[in-house]
Design goal:
- There is one protein chain.
- This protein is mainly α.
- It has 2 domains: 25-117 and 138-321, Hypothetical protein af1432; 323-397, no CATH class.
- Helices cover 61% and strands 0% of the residues.
- Helix 10 (196-220) packs antiparallel against helix 13.
- The chain starts with 43 loop residues before the first helix and ends in a 6-residue tail after the last helix.
- The model has no long low-confidence stretch (mean pLDDT 92).
- It binds magnesium ion.
- The site of magnesium ion has 6 residues, from helix 3 and helix 10.
Length: 398
């Protein structure tokens, strides 16, 4: 991956005024990989966000599993609605902290672009399939999509996003992979922090999924309100809502409880983060990057309550028999697709055969495997099922 960056040219729409000194500012951006004229109707980080919204990987999130397979019901979150919720929560936090809202939104909308079909089950099995070929990491895949895989622009592959957007998208990365990434991988080697916009989005992601998984889990009937009342953060809001509105129908009560949980989490996050910022007193984005730890965080009490909720969800929802059954079927689909395609790339659609062949010419077996992994990771749930049916002539469903 090319690590050369080109400075971006700010225009009169630049809205850095009013930002905190530790926010990311376009005029200090490390720039884009390929030089481009400044946009004339929006700012540079807004342009990044718009490129994500118009990408095909973003549209495919609509049919990718968050926890529940997309066709289990129209009311459940998908990766797309999850990403929109993450953007909403993260933008609110960023605005309150006087951080760069457009950059935060870009990172939030892009943070799950590299996810495989079938949620974490899909990612785990694809990583296993790729174990002799450099593995598969969904964060790295998100970066690969915006840097290389989107084919939309005449002058370059990928979306040519600014350094700060790319840095935020690459939330985690193994050291082995970081060493291959040039400038963007350096922070993992030097153990530096990402910008505050990326730190906010990281927690915005957590707030969104913990709460919407409670909502979806209740809707699916996999967990109950009684069970959730064993979890402090839920039971506190449950008792406030039921005392204030004793006759509230259950559906409304659930929404009322969840919106209050989000509110107390965000409020705690803002007050703790403001304290951390005051203590560390960063005067620039660079101070944030060099700080020994993250500067966005919860109070100890909120951290403990969130951990309890996460443990509850892991035990009762993510490892529920119904979710496990779905995961086993999904893993089987991906495992068998991968092995069929790597053994016989002629099973791929023609256009894809050509690109995998090119990668194989450049990088041998590693290239071929990466091409197949790109193809599978880009699939929606239903496309993976239909490709599996096409290749194996079955009518298996998840
Ligand atoms: Mg996410």
């Amino acid at each position: 991956m090319n690590s050369t960056v080109q400075p971006i040219h700010t225009n009169s729409l630049n809205i850095s005024d009013g930002l905190a000194p530790y926010a990311s500012r376009e005029e200090q951006s490390l720039g884009r990989q390929f030089p481009e004229p400044a946009p004339n109707t929006r700012t540079e980080f807004q342009r990044d966000r718009d490129r994500i919204v118009h990408s095909s990987a973003f549209r495919r999130l609509e049919y990718k599993t968050q926890v529940f397979v997309n066709h289990e019901g129209d009311m459940f979150r998908t990766r797309l609605t999850h990403s929109i919720e993450v953007a909403q929560i993260s933008r609110s936090i960023a605005r309150a902290l006087k951080l760069n809202e457009a950059l935060t939104e870009t990172i939030a909308l892009a943070h799950d672009l590299g996810h495989t079909p079938f949620g974490h089950a899909g990612q785990d099995i694809l990583n296993q399939c790729m174990k002799n070929y450099g593995g598969f990491e969904h964060n790295l895949q998100s970066l690969r999509i915006v840097d290389e895989l989107e084919e939309k622009y005449a002058d370059f592959n990928g979306l040519n996003l600014s350094f700060e957007s790319r840095e935020g998208i690459l939330k985690h990365c193994s050291l082995t992979n970081a060493k291959k990434l040039g400038e963007i991988g350096k922070r993992f080697i030097n153990k530096q922090q990402p910008g505050l916009e990326a730190q906010v989005t990281n927690i915005g992601d957590e707030i969104a999924y913990n709460n919407h998984d409670v909502d979806d889990g209740l809707r699916a009937g996999l967990i109950t309100i009684d069970q959730l009342c064993e979890v402090k953060i839920f039971s506190r809001q449950h008792s406030i809502v039921m005392t204030t509105y004793p006759k509230l129908p259950e559906k409304r009560a659930i929404h009322e409880i969840i919106r209050r949980i989000i509110n107390v989490q965000v409020t705690d996050l803002l007050s703790t983060t403001n304290k951390l910022l005051k203590k560390a007193n960063p005067t620039s984005r660079n101070d944030v990057l060099m700080h020994p730890g993250p500067l966005v965080g919860y109070s100890n009490e909120m951290q403990t309550m969130n951990l309890e909720l996460k443990k509850f969800l892991r035990k009762n929802l993510y490892r529920h028999r119904r979710v496990d059954d779905m995961s086993d079927k999904a893993k089987n689909i991906i495992r068998t697709l991968f092995s069929a395609l790597i053994n016989d790339p002629k099973l791929l659609p023609l256009e894809r055969q050509a690109s995998v062949h090119k990668m194989e010419e450049l990088d041998g077996d590693m290239g071929r495997a990466r091409g197949i992994a790109d193809y599978i990771a880009g699939m929606t749930d239903r496309f993976a099922i239909s490709e599996h049916e096409r290749i194996f002539n079955t009518s298996e469903s998840t």
